[in-house]
Amino acid sequence: MTAATVVHEVADLVAGLPPTPAIWCSGLRKRYGRHQAVDGISFEVQRGDVVGLLGPNGAGKTTVIKMLLGLVRPDAGEAMLLGRPAAEPSARSRVGYLPELFRYQPWLSAAEVLALHVRLSGVAVPASDQRERLALVGLAERAGDRVGGFSKGMQQRLGLAVALVTGPELVVLDEPTSALDPVGRVDVRDIVLALKAQGVGVLLNSHLIGEVERVCDRVIILDRGRVAASGTLAELLGQREVRVHLTAATSAVEARLAAAGRVDRIGDWFTVALPPDDDGSAVPDLVRDLVTLGARVHAVEPARISLEERLLGILRAADSDRGGDGGRP
Amino acid sequence: MSSVRTVLTIAALTLREAVRRRVVLALAGLTLVMLVFSGWGFSRLADESGLTSGQTRLTASIVLNLVMFGFSLIAALGTAFLAGPTLAGETESGIALAVLARPIRRSDFLLGKWLGLVAFGCGFVVLAGLSELIVVQVTMDYWPPQPAVALAHVAAQTIVLLTLAMLLSTAISPMASGVVAVGLFGATWIAGVVGGIGASLDNDAVARVGTISRMVLPTDGLWRGAMHAFQDPSAIVEFGGSEAGGFPFLSTAPLTTAYLLWAVVWVVMAWALAANSFVRRDL
Description:
A: 329 residues, 11 helices
C-alpha cells in the first residue's frame, strides 16, 4: 500500500465521519465564592440546530455561555466548539457572539467596529460584505456614525452585525432582543431562521419564551446551575389538552371528564389534560361518552400546553423536589 | 490569527482611542502652554545681566530639569489615567466581552494595549521634550549634554508607571488604579528627595529611604538619570559638589547599567504579573 493510497483512505474515512457538533460540553462547573453558579451542565448543539437556553434569573445561563467562549474559566468539565477544545482561542475563529452586556468602542464608527472584529477574527471579509451585514440589521445609514451616539437598540443591532460579520458556523446570542422594539424582534427571528437554513448552529439565551418557542428546535431549561429538562419542543410540550364547552354537566359527566385526565373548570368551560400515550382516540371517545351521559356539547377545542406553562411546571416541580424550600430568588 | 497581528491591531486601536478621546488634543494643549510659559521664563533668565557663563548653565540646567519634571508628570498622569480605563474600564463596561470572544489570546490583547500606551507615552515624551530643548536652545543658548539619553530615561519612567497602572487595573477599579499609580509616583519622588537630603547630610538611614523607594518603583531613579543627562556637567560643581544631592532638580551621578537592567526586569515582572492576573480573570 503506497503512502498516497493511505492518505486517500484516511481522507475518505474522515470525510465519512459525521460532522462535529457546533457545541459539545460535559460536566461544566463554576463556583463564585459560596455560590455554585453552574453545577455539572452537559449538552450539545448540532450544526443547523437552533437551541434555546431557558431558565430563571441566576440559573447559570450566561455563565455557561461565557465558559463556552473562554470568557470564564470553568472549575471542571470540558467543552468543544466546532470540534476544537473551547480553551483554545482558535476554537472561536468561526464563532459569532452577541453578549448580554453589549457595548462597543464608543469612539469608533459602526463600520470601524465591524472592521476591527473582522481583523481580530483573521477571516477575510470584503468591505461590501461588511456593509451588507450592517444593512441586514438596519444600520446601513449609520455605518459612519460613532457608536457613542447610538441608542441601546442600535448598539444591540450592531452587536448582531458583529456576531454575524465573519460568516460564523456557530452563533451564540445572549438575550439578543432585550433592547429591541417589536420590529427588531421579528428581524432577529428572521435572521436566526436564515442562519438555521444555512446550517449554522445557534445557541439562543432569551427570557422571551415566545421567541424561543418560535425559532428553537430544542430547548434546554436550566435551574440553579443544572439542566432541569431538555429536548425538542415536541418532547417538552408533548402533553396536549382539550377544552370543552358543556352545559347540563351532571356529576356523572364530571366524573367522566375526570377519568380522562386532570380537569380545570372555568364556568362552563372544562380543560382536560390528555394522557401522554394518547393514540388519538381519547377526544372522540370522551365526546361520545359526554353526549351519551346527557351533556350538551357546545364546543370542543384542542389545546397544547405552552412552553411558558411547561417551564413554570418544571421549575415548580424542581422546587417541590427540594422540599419546597422556596429559595428561588 | 497570528499573535503579532493581534498585538499590532490592539496597539493601533489603543492609539486611536487616545486620539479620538481627545487625550492627544488635551496633552498638546498642555504642552503648548508649558512651552510658551517656559520660553517666556527662559528668555527672562537670559536677559538677567550679571550672571557668569557657569551660573547661566547652572540656572538653565535647574530650570530645564524643573520644566522636564512637569512634562514627565503630564506623561505619567496621562498614561496612568489612560492605562486604567482602557483595560479595567473595558472589562467593566463589557466592551472586552465581544473582543476577547474572538480567536485571540488575552496575553496578546494585553501586550497590544501596553504597546499602544508605550508608543503614546514615548511619542509624547520625545515630541514635547524635543520642543522644550529647542525652546531652551533658542532662549538661553543651552543644549543638554546627552539629550537622547535624557529623553530615553523620561520615556522609560513613563513606561514603568503605565505598566504599574496596568498591573493595578487588573486588580482594582479603573479610577483607583490611576490614583494609586500617580500617588506612588509622587511618593517615590518625595522619598527620592528625602534620600538625597539624607545623602548630602551623610545620614545613611535617611539616604536609604531614597535607595529603597528607587528599587521598589524605579520611576524616581530613572528620573534622576534623566536629570543627569539634561544638566550641564559643571552644574554640580557650581552648586557645591556633593551637596547638590539634597537639591531635587539636580542629579549627582548617572545611572548604573545594573540599575537600568533592574528597571527592565521590574517592567517585565510587573507586566507578567498583570498578564497572569488578566488571563485568569473571569469576565
